[in-house]
């Protein structure tokens, strides 16, 4: 099952490589990984999406917690949560394609953020399925380049991940 | 306040941490540190002949004393040579700090001479690693390193020290921190009371219980609590290879150690139990055999300081995270207060069954009128040393024979590389013990394969006068490899024979020690007595043993705990 694990990590050199190393050492999957500093400059927030049986996920969270630089973590998929991913897509856009792409972008509530005579660059945010859906809708033949940030997530309601 | 250079602060920090000995080898990036070491005489340095041995020495010291060991090496090859030793300590959760020189911070990343990314190389095999980024941080980094190494589930910690951090011309105010603050590292100090209560209720209701104890009991200094609880309950107890000595092996409630080469009765009792109380063990594959066939009727209580050890391979019904001594203490008081008592009738018939298993096989081997059996060497040394020696071993058949036939009644006496299985561990580990226990007998059981993996340390033994007794069970083959080839590869002995073995007697003499060869059965006892009488000499005892002996019992691969070979021909 797919899980989103969100981690508060000491903002120190080497901390990220310990997390990434753990996944490869113990043969766990990483599907996406995002990391950036938080409003507290001593902390980074890292979000990793992974798949595995409940037993594997339990081991992943326990092993992550064992890392000295991991301050706190939560499995967001255990409760109601919001997940977002940002995607930039460069598409071939000439002739009648231009209007068609514009319509599709509007349906997906994306934005065209850069335009040339033959290329549109589209920005789209949402959950991963929505981004997958957009790629399917425009078709891979028109796609020149795709870049995705990976998933970031946050719990719904009052629940917060903080010290 | 005193002004000290980075190197001086480092050595002073070690002294303030209570470190008496460090084991190491100098080199370019560590020279400022070695100079500071030279100019004081409180922290003593032991110069090994290979850095791997320095780590095993520190490891042997740590296992025998329960205190963290300390290693000092230079960058590059000095640091990478420690990796096998660090991995050995990591697998067995041994507290240790490894201080590594590094090229100057201005050169890092430029492929400088003797530069290796030691933080990267060591990362998978350390509990944690730290680097010094400013010289004034040194006391705090050292305090943190020992704190992390020795608390919670212990383990090795590497500290990477760029050469410019220890420069002699820059001086700083020195003070050693009393406490460390680590917001993200808070090992459990006690177990969950509700879970402990639940566990005790289950213990009282059990019909066929077994206590299964591991190295965590020794690391957690909880042998006396374990012994008290076991006696209060009257349950059979087995332990892992790493747990040997956590409960007296000669006691009647002890049913031997379990797993791949464990006793018949311990493996049978585990398989047929209805309740397993696991204390500081981790259901390792050398214990469980095939996990899907593991102890089908047993419910499991698992006590461990490391939550990640619980339900990793075998699911626990009642997990208890906490230090084993504190958890066992609470259990003892609950057992004593409890109105319920263990089910005496059920226990009596359970013990009757176990005694039948013990009588059916137990620990036994066939003797021969003329060939020396490796097992009888171990048994004889057990008797001649009154079961009170510190015993280290290398890895292979001799390790299993030593663990099976030397009966340990005390913790911290059986010292071996159980998790990683590191050949070459035994001699340096014995040296680390002898250094701090000069009045105790220290035996190193080894084989002609293993001993050659760190034999250069005979030179260190001479320099520091370390009269350990090396018991080389010489079967002229890599015995365990050969055994597996006999059993699984139709006796095709691929590369498991060593041609051109050295004359170990002359070799020992060349290093300034005594060598004794024993190849006749009638010489065994008198010569071993002579060896043990040479109190102040290192004696290399080269004993020619049966070349065809196998270690039994041996669990059948991919079977359950109860599926065992009891000899070359008997399978149950």
Query: What is the CATH class designation of the largest domain in chain B?
Result: Alpha Beta
The name CATH uses for the topology of the largest domain in chain B is: Rossmann fold
Low-pLDDT parts of chain B are none
Contiguous helical run count of chain A: 4
Largest interface: A-B, 19 and 19 residues
* Largest beta-sheet characterization of chain B: 6 strands, parallel
Number of strands of chain B: 22
CATH class call of the largest domain in chain A: Alpha Beta
Strand content of chain B: 15-25%
Mean pLDDT of chain A: 96
Key features?
heterodimer, A: 163 residues, alpha+beta, Alpha-Beta Plaits, 2 domains, 5-stranded antiparallel sheet, 4-stranded antiparallel sheet, 4 helices, 40% strand, elongated, B: 572 residues, alpha/beta, Rossmann fold, 3 domains, 6-stranded parallel sheet, 21 helices, 35% helix
Give an overview of the whole structure.
The complex is a heterodimer of chains A (163) and B (572). By secondary structure, chain A is of the alpha+beta class. Chain A has two domains: 2-79, 2-Layer Sandwich (Alpha-Beta Plaits); 83-152, ACT-like. Chain A, domain 2 (Alpha-Beta Plaits, 2-Layer Sandwich), CATH 3.30.70. Helix content of chain A is 28%, strand content 40%. Chain A contains four helices and nine strands; from the N terminus they run βαββαββαββαββ. Chain A has helices at 15-25, 54-66, 97-107, 128-138; strands at residues 2-10, 32-37, 43-51, 70-75, 81-92, 111-115, 119-126, 143-148, 152-155. In chain A, strands 5, 6, 7, 8 and 9 form a five-stranded antiparallel β-sheet that branches. In chain A, strands 2-3-1-4 form a four-stranded antiparallel β-sheet, covered by helices on one side. The longest helix of chain A is centred in the middle third of the chain and has 13 residues, at 54-66. Chain A starts with a strand and ends in an 8-residue tail after the last strand. In chain B, strands 3-2-4-5-7-6 form a six-stranded parallel β-sheet, sandwiched between helices. Chain B has a six-stranded parallel β-sheet with strand order 11-10-9-12-13-14, with helices on both faces. The N and C termini of chain B lie far apart (72 Å). In chain B, 35% of the residues lie in helices and 17% in strands. Chain B is globular. The relative contact order of chain B is 0.11. Chain B has 21 helices and 22 strands. Chain B has three domains: 3-173, 3-Layer(aba) Sandwich (Rossmann fold), CATH 3.40.50; 193-360, 3-Layer(aba) Sandwich (Rossmann fold), CATH 3.40.50; 374-551, Thiamin diphosphate (ThDP)-binding fold, Pyr/PP domains (Rossmann fold, 3-Layer(aba) Sandwich). The mean pLDDT of chain B is 97. Chain B is of the alpha/beta class and 572 residues long. The A-B interface holds A 10, 14, 17-18, 21, 25, 55, 58-59, 62-63, 65-66, 68-72, 163 and B 119-120, 123-124, 127-129, 131, 148, 182-185, 306-308, 311-312, 315.
């Amino acid at each position: 099952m797919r899980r989103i694990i969100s981690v508060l990590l000491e903002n120190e050199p080497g901390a990220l490589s310990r997390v990434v190393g753990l996944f490869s050492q113990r043969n766990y999957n990483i599907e996406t990984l995002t990391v950036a500093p938080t409003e507290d400059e001593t902390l980074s927030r890292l979000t990793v999406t992974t798949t595995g049986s409940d037993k594997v996920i339990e081991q992943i969270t326990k092993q992550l917690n064992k890392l000295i630089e991991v301050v706190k973590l939560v499995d967001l998929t255990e409760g109601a949560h919001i997940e977002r991913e940002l995607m930039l897509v460069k598409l071939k856009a000439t002739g009648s394609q231009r209007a068609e792409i514009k319509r599709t972008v509007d349906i997906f509530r994306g934005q065209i953020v850069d335009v040339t005579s033959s290329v549109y660059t589209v920005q789209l945010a949402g959950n991963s399925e929505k981004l997958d859906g957009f790629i399917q809708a425009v078709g891979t033949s028109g796609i020149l380049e795709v870049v995705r940030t990976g998933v970031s997530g946050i719990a719904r309601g009052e629940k917060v991940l903080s010290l | 306040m005193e002004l000290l250079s980075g190197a001086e602060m480092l050595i002073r920090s070690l002294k303030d941490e209570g470190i008496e000995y460090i084991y190491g080898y100098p080199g370019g990036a560590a020279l400022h540190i070695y100079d500071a070491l030279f100019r004081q005489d409180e922290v003593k340095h032991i110069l090994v002949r290979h850095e791997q041995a320095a780590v095993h020495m520190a490891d042997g010291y740590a296992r025998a004393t329960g205190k963290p060991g300390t290693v000092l090496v230079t960058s590059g090859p000095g640091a990478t040579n420690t990796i096998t030793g660090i991995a050995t300590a990591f697998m067995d959760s041994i507290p240790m700090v490894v201080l590594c020189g590094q090229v100057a911070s201005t050169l890092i990343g430029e492929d400088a001479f003797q530069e290796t990314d030691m933080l990267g190389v060591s990362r998978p095999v350390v509990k944690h690693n730290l680097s010094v980024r400013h010289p004034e941080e040194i006391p705090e980094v050292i305090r943190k390193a020992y704190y992390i190494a020795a608390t919670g589930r212990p383990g090795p910690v590497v500290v990477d020290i760029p050469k410019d951090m220890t420069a002699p011309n820059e001086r700083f105010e020195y003070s050693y921190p009393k406490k460390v603050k680590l917001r993200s590292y808070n090992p459990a100090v006690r177990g969950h009371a509700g879970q402990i209560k639940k566990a005790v209720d289950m213990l009282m209701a059990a019909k066929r219980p077994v206590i299964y104890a591991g190295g965590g009991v020794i690391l957690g200094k909880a042998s006396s609590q374990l012994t008290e609880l076991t006696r209060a309950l009257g349950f059979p107890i087995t332990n892992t290879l790493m747990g040997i000595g956590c409960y007296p092996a000669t006691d009647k409630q002890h049913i031997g150690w379990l797993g791949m080469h464990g006793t018949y009765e311990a493996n049978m009792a585990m398989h047929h139990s209805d309740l397993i109380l696991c204390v500081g063990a981790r259901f390792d594959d050398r214990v469980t055999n095939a996990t899907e066939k593991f102890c089908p009727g047993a419910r499991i209580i698992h006590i461990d300081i490391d939550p990640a050890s619980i339900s990793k391979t075998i699911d626990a019904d009642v997990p208890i995270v906490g230090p084993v001594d504190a958890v066992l203490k609470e259990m003892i008081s609950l057992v004593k207060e409890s109105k319920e008592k263990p089910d005496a009738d059920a226990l009596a018939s359970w013990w009757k069954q176990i005694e039948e298993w013990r009588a059916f096989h137990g620990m036994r081997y066939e003797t021969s009128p003329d060939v020396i059996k490796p097992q009888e060497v171990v048994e004889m040394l057990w008797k001649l040393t009154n079961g009170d020696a510190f015993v280290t071993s290398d890895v292979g058949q001799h390790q299993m024979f030593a663990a099976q036939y030397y009966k340990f009644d005390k913790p911290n006496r059986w010292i071996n590389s159980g998790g990683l299985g590191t050949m070459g561990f035994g001699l340096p580990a014995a040296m680390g013990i002898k250094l701090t226990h000069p009045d105790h007998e220290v035996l190193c059981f080894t084989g002609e394969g293993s001993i050659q993996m760190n034999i250069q340390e005979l030179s260190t033994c001479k320099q520091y006068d370390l009269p350990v007794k090396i018991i080389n069970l010489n079967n002229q083959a890599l015995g365990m490899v050969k055994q597996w080839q006999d059993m699984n590869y139709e006796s095709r002995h691929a590369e498991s024979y060593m041609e051109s073995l050295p004359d170990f007697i002359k070799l020992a003499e060349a290093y300034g020690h005594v060598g004794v060869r024993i190849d006749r059965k009638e010489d065994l006892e008198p010569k071993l007595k002579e060896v043990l009488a040479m109190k102040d000499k290192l004696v290399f005892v080269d004993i020619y043993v049966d070349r065809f002996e196998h270690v039994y019992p041996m669990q059948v691969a991919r079977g359950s705990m109860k599926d065992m070979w009891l000899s070359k021909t008997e399978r149950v």
